[in-house]
Amino acid sequence: MPLKMNGMSRKKAFLKGVWSGIVEPIAAIVTVLLINIVVPILPYLLSFAAGAMIFVVVEELIPEIQEGKKSSLGIIGVTIGFIVMMVLDIVLG
To answer: For the whole model, what pTM was predicted?
Structure first.
C-alpha cells in the first residue's frame, strides 16, 4: 500500500511486496532441513533476536535517549540496566 500511495503501479508494488517476503519460506525450508543443528542453538538465536528487538525499541521508539551528542550512552545505560535486571532475576529466582 505505501508503494502504491507513492505513485508506483499496482503490479510493481505487488511484486515488490512478494519479493520482500520471499525470504521467509526459504528460511523456513532451510531451518527444516537443518533441524538437528538449529534445535540445540535455538535458545541462543531467540535471545539474539530478543536483544535486537530491545535495541530497536530503545533506539527508535524512545527519542529522548537520542537527544544530544552522546546518544549511545543512553542506549548503553539501558542495555546494562537490562542485563543487571536479568542477572538479578536469575540469581534471586
So the answer is: 0.46
